[in-house]
Design goal:
Length: about 500
């Protein structure tokens, strides 16, 4: 789940882009990159966080009033710095592109590019497939007199050929800034504007939180299949009117997106509180009577506060997060994830000692976090620990940009709730019901529809049987290179449940 930005205004954009990318750091920690254009492309990218990659020396070189940026969470290809985004190609015009998502028919697209256009991508990053497909279609147009219709036509063909999830931003050198979405609009993308005495600055970003930091006004979400083009005179053009998506990733609302972002009219923080309140019915039906509700920082907070309010039990922050640690789930190896979880969270003994604690997290995916948390809460003296997930059990792989492509690593795909409870050594485990989640996010409420594939196994992009296999093979080939097995690793196979 990468983060992307694109800026176009009267002055240099690199500083705004660093701000924007920093606000999106939660979407990707593997690599960061930026590309600006004045009379040439200026590209800076590498592995690490935004603050590591863009030092003042590099920023000075990123001149130009148009540019794109990326923070990467790898879902295709390796973690090698050569695969960091953006990517550029010199023909036609000079294109620089970033994307968030995952191309599922990557083998077919690569084959077509090779056979029809004799293109060989440099890396196995799926972004290259989107970029070269778009470039190959664009170069068939009248390049001496390129029109917006030509650009949108090339976008449309790209959207027909490339399947999966992709929110993209492209600099077309000398022409303008283009953003387009996959036909289902699975990933978020928003357009903002800031007026300055020198003229407007337009920006695209994965999440609206970027605009709050930078004093931009939110203009609109980029809808499913929609394309938006800002031309060199700062006129704005739309391919298709905005429509609500029918398959927006619900896991963005549950975990990925930042709480202060509003996506398709839904404030993420509010949705998480609602998810927490919704859990009350199940918690009460389970006969659980906690003395206090605590959250797993960071993403469990709003659901925990919602549940506490709904069941009338005090909420306390019972676990402290080391603010210098990032997210654990998006680390690419199991050893790395375990290391982050260990360093990240510490219980406040005096709050939890002698208490029956309901600990709320947004999700249990591989069980890395929950297992550790239950253990440290018990060590801190909690008498009972109930682990409560605001997401339903994750039983199916994601092929749209979350790196959980193999069902073998999803604990709920392999074990029953009782077995999971034993494995994480909790007294009770309570999951959100999928039906309740679907009701809460129901389309008729006027916010569009969602993709629930990781909970339901129903994929919105048609029959994906062969793509599931292709993606699994692709991920396995990279895992084998980078995984070090550890004692508690659940990545090769979900854990064998143990008694306690
Ligand atoms: O069952 P697991 O495989 O451990 O995955 C689920 C955990 O990972 C995420 O936390 P993360 O540390 O990534 O981010 P956060 O700080 O936003 O909560 C999520 O919020 C859960 O805590
Ligand atoms: N999570 C994402 O959006 C990843 C984008 C792309 N598939 C990559 O691996 O770079
Ligand atoms: Mg978490």
């Amino acid at each position: 789940m990468c983060g992307i930005v694109g800026f176009f205004g009267p002055d240099d954009v690199a500083h705004d882009m660093v701000f924007g990318l920093t606000a999106l750091q939660h979407r990707g920690q593997d690599a960061a990159g930026m590309c600006t254009f004045d009379d040439n492309f200026h590209l800076c990218k590498g592995n690490g966080l935004v603050a590591d990659v863009f030092r003042p020396k590099q920023l000075k070189k990123l001149t130009g009033n148009i540019g794109i940026g990326h923070v990467r969470y790898t879902t295709q290809g390796s973690n090698d710095s050569a695969l960091a985004q953006p990517f550029t190609t010199s023909y036609p015009f000079g294109l620089a592109m970033v994307h968030n998502g995952n191309v599922i028919n990557f083998r077919e697209v690569a084959k077509r590019l090779h056979e029809k256009y004799h293109v060989l991508p440099k890396t196995s990053n799926d972004l290259e497939l989107i970029m070269y497909t778009f470039a190959s279609e664009l170069r068939l147009k009248n390049l001496d007199n390129l029109s917006v219709v030509d650009i949108f036509d090339a976008v449309e063909t790209t959207q027909e050929l490339v399947k999966g999830a992709y929110a993209t931003i492209t600099v077309i050198a000398g022409h303008g800034l283009l953003a387009f979405n996959d036909p289902h609009g699975i990933r978020p993308l928003v357009l903002g504007r800031r007026d300055t005495p020198e003229g407007p600055v337009f920006a695209f970003a994965s999440e609206s939180t970027c605009f709050d930091y930078l004093g931009f006004e939110f203009v609109q979400n980029v809808g499913p299949g929609q394309a938006v083009f800002i031309d060199k005179n700062f006129n704005i053009h739309f391919k298709n009117p905005y429509e609500l998506p029918k398959a927006f990733c619900v896991f963005e609302q549950i975990y990925f997106a930042r709480e202060d972002s509003t996506i398709h009219g839904r404030l993420v923080a509010r949705e998480r509180v609602r998810l927490g309140k919704l859990l009350a019915r199940k918690v009460m039906a389970a006969g659980i009577e906690p003395d206090m509700v605590i959250d797993v920082p960071s993403s469990g907070y709003f659901a925990a506060s919602g549940l506490a309010e709904a069941i009338g039990v005090p909420y306390r922050r019972g676990l402290v997060k080391n603010n210098h640690m990032g997210r654990s789930f998006i680390v690419s190896s199991q050893a790395g994830r375990e290391d982050v979880v260990k360093k990240k969270l510490n219980p406040i003994r005096e709050f939890v000692e002698g208490k029956k604690v309901a600990v709320v997290d947004d999700s249990i995916v591989r069980g890395t976090t929950s297992r550790r948390i239950v253990r440290i809460l018990r060590e801190a003296g909690a008498t009972e620990v109930y682990f409560i997930s605001s997401a339903p059990p994750i039983v199916s792989p994601c092929i749209y940009g979350i790196d959980m492509a193999m069902s073998t690593e999803l604990i709920a795909a392999n074990y029953t709730e009782e077995e999971i409870c034993r494995y994480i050594e909790a007294d009770r485990v309570v999951y959100q019901d999928l039906a309740d989640l679907q009701e809460l996010f129901a389309e008729e409420r006027g916010h569009g529809g969602n993709c629930f594939a990781c909970f339901s196994g129903q994929y919105p992009t048609g029959d994906v049987t062969k793509y599931l296999r292709h993606i699994q093979e692709e991920r396995e080939s990279h895992r084998q290179k980078q995984e070090r097995p550890t004692e508690t690793s659940v990545s090769a196979k979900a854990p064998a449940p143990t008694e306690h």
